[in-house]
Amino acid sequence: MQIKIIGVGKLKEKYLKMGIEEYTKRLGSYCKIQIVEVPDEKAPENLSDKEMAQVKDKEGERILAKIRDNEYVIAMAIEGKLVSSEDLAKELDQCGISGKSSVTFVIGGSLGLSPSVVKRANSKMSFGRITLPHQLMRLVLTEQIYRAFRINAGHSYHK
Ligand SMILES: C[S@@+](CC[C@H](N)C(=O)[O-])C[C@H]1O[C@@H](n2cnc3c(N)ncnc32)[C@H](O)[C@@H]1O
């Protein structure tokens, strides 16, 4: 299976880079994993609603340009379907069984995802009603994907 994570902006913090590197290395035994970064738009505090929508739309266009037609897209969204680690494992397993071998997770920028990306997504997944910074979300998601593969393989790790 091919897993792609699309995120907005470059990772800044060393601890996040190190964590993501560790889990992508571990995931190498289970799938092909690719992290794709698209450039972010400047989003100062005082943007109007219209300007915020424009920022999200521009980032959204860049995200959509990285998604091929055959990819099963999971949009990460606070208001999406609440899932457990087992639910994520099941969704990935189901993708494998039904021949969807390219699964792409999309994480929005600081203002969230554009409606066009949400429309393209096959499902909308939430890790709880808390707001995680988008760069930390990349690390949490990488760990959860690793956990999901361990669960599906029946390997110890998940508690
Ligand atoms: C800082 S958050 C964006 C906050 C924005 N107000 C919103 O409602 O989307 C950046 C991105 O991280 C992801 N994210 C943050 N917390 C999440 C959560 N609890 N569950 C799923 N995705 C989350 C989403 O993809 C979101 O677009």
CATH architecture tag: 3-Layer(aba) Sandwich
Distance between the termini: 24 Å
Strand content: 15-25%
Bound molecules: S-adenosylmethionine
Supply the CATH superfamily name.
Answer: SPOUT methyltransferase, trefoil knot domain
**Total number of beta strands:** 5
> Helix/strand/pairing class, anyone?
alpha/beta
Index terms:
Alpha/beta knot; 43% helix; binds S-adenosylmethionine; cytoplasm; transferase
Short description:
The chain has helices at about 15-25, 50-65, 85-95, 115-120, 135-155, and strands at about 1-10, 30-40, 70-80, 100-105, 125.
Structural commentary:
There is one protein chain. With 159 residues, this protein is of the alpha/beta class. The protein has one domain: SPOUT methyltransferase, trefoil knot domain (Alpha/beta knot, 3-Layer(aba) Sandwich), CATH 3.40.1280.10. Helices cover 43% and strands 22% of the residues. It contains five helices and five strands. Helix 1 runs parallel beside helix 5 (134-153) and helix 3 (85-97) crosses helix 5 (134-153). 28% of the residues are buried. The mean pLDDT is 96. The structure holds S-adenosylmethionine. S-adenosylmethionine binds next to strand 3 and helix 5. S-adenosyl-L-methionine binds at residues 108, 127-132. Belongs to the RNA methyltransferase RlmH family. Keywords: Cytoplasm, Methyltransferase, rRNA processing, S-adenosyl-L-methionine, Transferase.
